[in-house]
Amino acid sequence: DEIPTVVGIFSAFGLIFSVSLFAWICCQRKSSKSNKTPPYKFVHVLKGVDIYPENLNSKKKFGADDKGEAKNKSTMPKNSLHLDLEKRDLNGNFPKTTPKIQSSPDLENLSPKHFSERKKDSVSPDSLKSIASLSSEDKQDKLGTLFFSLEYNFEKKAFVVNIKEARGLPAMDEQSMTSDPYIKMTILPEKKHKVKTRVLRKTLDPAFDETFTFYGIPYSQIQDLTLHFMILSFDRFSRDDVIGEVLIPLAGIELSEGRLLMDREIIKRNVRKSSGRGELLISLCYQSTTNTLTVVVLKARHLPKSDVSGLSDPYVKVNLYHAKKRISKKKTHVKKCTPNAVFNELFVFDIPCEGLDDISIEFLVLDSDRGSRNEVIGRLTLGSSAEGTGGEHWKEICEYPRRQIAKWHMLCDG
Questions:
Q1: How far apart are CA 228 and CA 121, in angstroms?
Q2: Which residue ranges make up each domain of the chain?
Q3: I need a labelling partner for 243 at 20 to 30 A (CA). Which of 21, 120, 156, 344 fits?
Q4: Quick one: 278-411 is in which CATH superfamily?
Q5: pTM for the whole thing?
Q6: Could you report the per-residue pLDDT of 332-360, keeping only the tens digit for each?
């Protein structure tokens, strides 16, 4: 009788010890996780207010200046770029009477000559050539100036971009003579990081003051990156108007000394000329017995370079029309970074009428873009009223039902 009692006592003590050890290990793991850098792709700070928890920035505004700089900020003149909400108008913009922009308290004591030399040192020779190669038409048609700052946080291993403001934008709305601007920023060449600011209504001098923090970018890779700013004007009823763009190669820009304020003239969007919009290989088969149309999107080739990086992320949207009314739509998967995409995707459409006389099918090749609306690369329409190869292909599938017929087609402008 004594042996089972002793075994039971030892088992109880062993169970209590195991539970205590498990609880201690869980507490240690929880405390170690709280000290790690959060695995965010980027942090968006809007008007100086962080939308993420306080443990991200140790109860400080991420990217804020030190105490010495905070003291100097209290002595800043009224004409500096200090973003004070009390000095803004109803649209959140600065008064137009602001005479001259200064970057930060650190740059107040620098002479204009020294500041220009600092800019020259931070710009690569390639970017200087691109600026010098602006045509006289671009200089005459001024599209405004973009102000932004760059910084690298070595402690967090994060790249910080602050989009401050834009000035002197052109009016894209002819009726109100204003614009509704916003900025889309992409880090090239991989295009993994795409962000955009909020839309500011009816202003030509928008003050965004939005900070984007990108984690997981080593400082050694900063020199290989390029920042692409696309300045657009929001349009509620149609596609947004492109005002212009700014391209900043980071090669030669030194961020180890702290925050760097930069400003660049906005130039016209570089629309690359090409011999065509590319080609699309389509296979069609009409089943008269089941009254269905089988569409196979096979390949695309020679697609134009619609992006600054020189690569597109194409996909195909297929729309079926009956008497000029869309009755069905399908789309393929996105193919990353290629001008010659292989889709091999099959779609089956039910035809609501006998024959294909009132049926047409439209193919839209688009460039996938998470930051804004997808851009149409090219368009193709097949039907009885279509011209060229589109009409010929349609005539063949009508004459030879139950036969899969494939053809290459030239894409036209979207």
A1: 20
A2: 144-273, 278-411
A3: 120
A4: C2 domain (2.60.40.150)
A5: 0.43
A6: 999 988 889 999 999 999 998 888 888 99
